Amino acid sequence: MILDILDTSKKYVEILKKLSIKIVSFDDHSEGKFLADLRFNILEPGIEPPAPNLFEGPKYVTLHPVYVEYHYKIKEIKKQANKILITFGGSDPDNLTNKVLRALEKMDRKLEINIVVGFAFPYFQELKKNIERSKHKINVYKNISSQKMAELMFESDIGIGAGGLTQYEFACIGLPGIIICENVEHQYKLGNWFQERGVFVNLGIGKTLLEEEILKNVCELLENYSKRKEMSAKGKSLGDGRGLERTVNKILEVLR
Question: Which residues of 99-133 are buried (b: 16+ CB within 10 A; e: fewer)?
Fold first, then answer.
């Protein structure tokens, strides 16, 4: 049985264990995870002591196979950076897409901005109004394929996104990024984990973040070619996108 639940109770897993089945746990933050036969921890790497059945971080993140293809392509880091990708997942509950767009409107030059929104994004009318009065060239994509998302990341100079799995996609492709977290603890921790390794700039929780702070950090990163180049290289060095293959092989080992 595969459990992909953030807070599996110990009692529930104890009941499953009585059925004499193998249990695989993904990104569980509760006590039930310690009873699993195999554990994968992608959202909070380095929090727990090492264990023989625990596999963490970029090496085991299960990205779509297309990211392997883009990982091995040579990504150009341009000295004159102008292309920004904004993506905050399927729903963007804190409306960070519009917040970032308002911040970028204060920039004194014109940008090319690609915005990706998910099926549950509830602020489309506000987004439409912001785009209509913007000086930037803006494209909006909704419910796109993994192939198209990887392509947009590969073509962009900077990515701005939330603190979840998108960070692994940015890193795999080598896209320098600014992370703005939703009000979820594991996003903040993961954002810090990447920042400590020089891969991204983590601006913290988006709800309380000032637009001026977003603008300042975007401007600094656009102007700093050497930092973007270094971030790209460090991101690609962390993971090759083959986590899905490694994860499947570990599960098969447990079943044998």
Answer: bbbebbeeeeeebebbbbbeeebebeeebeebbee
